[in-house]
Design a protein that fits this description.
Keywords: Signal. This protein is mainly alpha-helical. The chain has three helices and no strands. It has one domain. Helix 1 runs antiparallel to helix 2 and helix 2 runs antiparallel to helix 3. It is rod-shaped and about 140 Å long. The protein starts with a helix and ends with a helix.
Length: 309
């Protein structure tokens, strides 16, 4: 009996020991499995985060490169607008000075011509008034002389006995008066006609001179316009050529995704400097033409002024 109980006790101990071992193995396995899953998840998450971060970095980097290209494209366009505005303002200022010059010349010569016209008109008007006054004086004298002759004749006793002869002499005196007055009127009309012819000739001469001066001014304006058109044409052509040359270099920086601000700025500055020098060169040629034409106009008008004085 004791022996049987001992065997049963031993068997129970063995079974209990076996169960504990299995449970330990199972628990260990579960733990390892859980750790493995956790490790795998952590590794996967870390890997995904790194991938996302790399992708984000690549995207940011690409965006930054694109932004740099856009930034300097905007800067380039801004400089272009500033340069064009500066050129426009400078050209307008120069044109204002030139217009003031030519308008001043036109006003001065027109004022001088008008003064000359007024002088001629007044001079010949005085001549007409003097001629009319002289005619009036002659007529009055002719009438006075005739009346005196008639009075003297009537008081004379020479024809007291012959009324017909007296009438004949009185009629003769009257006819002589009429003839003298007619001659005086004819002389007056001839004088007035000659005065008118001379006045009209001088006024026409002034009108012709004014037309010649206007033609000079028109020729001057045309020469300036041609010079301006040539300047604008050359500036447009050269600008297009320079922009095209630098477009290639800017596109090369953009395609290579160059991040160096120095390279972008240096290229923009080079383009701007080349454009500025081009504008200055063409402006200088235009300015020289304007100076030459201004001097030519000055000389021509001086000749006309001398002839009018």
């Amino acid at each position: 009996m004791k022996r049987l109980l001992l065997i049963l006790l031993i068997l129970n101990m063995l079974i209990s020991s076996s169960c504990n071992t299995i449970n330990n193995v199972i628990n260990k396995f579960k733990k390892n499995t859980t750790n493995t899953k956790t490790t795998q998840q952590t590794t996967t998450q870390t890997s995904n985060q790194n991938t996302n971060k790399q992708t984000q970095n690549n995207t940011v980097e690409q965006t930054q490169k694109i932004d740099i290209a856009n930034e300097y494209s905007i800067l380039r366009n801004d400089m272009e607008l500033q340069r064009l505005n500066s050129v426009k303002m400078e050209n307008e200022a120069k044109e204002k000075i030139r217009l003031n010059f030519v308008n001043s010349k036109r006003q001065n010569i027109n004022s001088l011509i008008q003064s000359k016209k007024d002088y001629i008109t007044k001079m010949y008007k005085n001549m007409e008034e003097n001629a009319n006054a002289e005619y009036k004086y002659k007529i009055e004298k002719i009438k006075s002389d005739a009346q005196n002759q008639k009075d003297k004749l009537n008081k004379s006793s020479q024809y007291s006995d012959d009324q017909s002869k007296l009438e004949e002499q009185l009629n003769k005196i009257e006819q002589d008066r009429i003839d003298k007055e007619a001659k005086a009127r004819e002389e007056l009309n001839n004088k007035l006609y000659n005065i008118k012819i001379q006045r009209d000739a001088e006024l026409m001469n002034l009108k012709n001179k004014q037309a010649e001066i206007e033609k000079l001014l028109k020729d001057y304006e045309n020469s300036i316009k041609n010079a301006k058109d040539l300047r604008d044409k050359n500036q447009t052509q050269y600008k297009t050529s320079i922009n095209a040359k630098y477009d290639v270099q800017f596109n090369e920086l953009k395609s290579k995704k160059v991040e160096s601000a120095f390279k972008w700025k240096d290229l923009i500055n080079k383009e701007n400097q080349e454009l500025v020098e081009m504008y200055l060169k063409e402006d200088k040629a235009y300015d020289e033409t304007v100076m030459q034409q201004n001097q030519w106009l000055e000389d021509q008008i001086s000749k006309y002024v001398s002839s009018l004085q």
